[in-house]
Amino acid sequence: MAMPDQSAIDSAVKRLALALDSLDAAVERRREADRSEEGLASQLHALGVDRTRLAAALDGEAARSRRLETSNREIAQRLDAAIASIQSVLDTNE
């Protein structure tokens, strides 16, 4: 009678050891997943910071572009007026 009981206990101990090994593996997988999520959250935060910085730079460059366009129009108008003035002087001297 002692032999079958010992066999049952050995079998139960083996099942328990396998269950504990499975639990350890599951805990390690969860830790890896958590580390991966933390890494992704960190990357997402860095991307958000980069996006904010790039948006501010884009706004600044868009404003600079508008100023340059305005300056170009003013210069073109002045050149047109100067050309017209020179043409007028040339026409009167002919």
Walk me through what this model shows.
This protein is mostly helical and 94 residues long. The protein contains 1 helix and no strands. It has one helix spanning 2-93. The longest helix has 92 residues, at 2-93. The radius of gyration is 40 Å and the shape is rod-shaped. The mean pLDDT is 92.
Name the helix and strand elements from N-terminus to C-terminus, one letter apiece: H
The structural class is mainly alpha
Q: What is the terminal separation in angstroms?
A: 136 Å
Largest sheet, if any? none
Q: Uncertain regions: pLDDT < 50 for 5+ in a row? A: none
* Total E-strand runs: 0
Beta content comes to under 5%
The helix content, as a percent range, equals over 70%
Taken from the alpha-carbon principal axes, the silhouette is rod-shaped
Mean pLDDT: 92
Task: Give the count of helical stretches.
Answer: 1
Output the radius of gyration: 40 Å
Which characteristics define this entry?
98% helix, 94 residues, mainly alpha, single chain
Question: How would you summarize what this structure contains?
Answer:
With 94 residues, the chain is mostly helical. It is built from one helix and no strands.
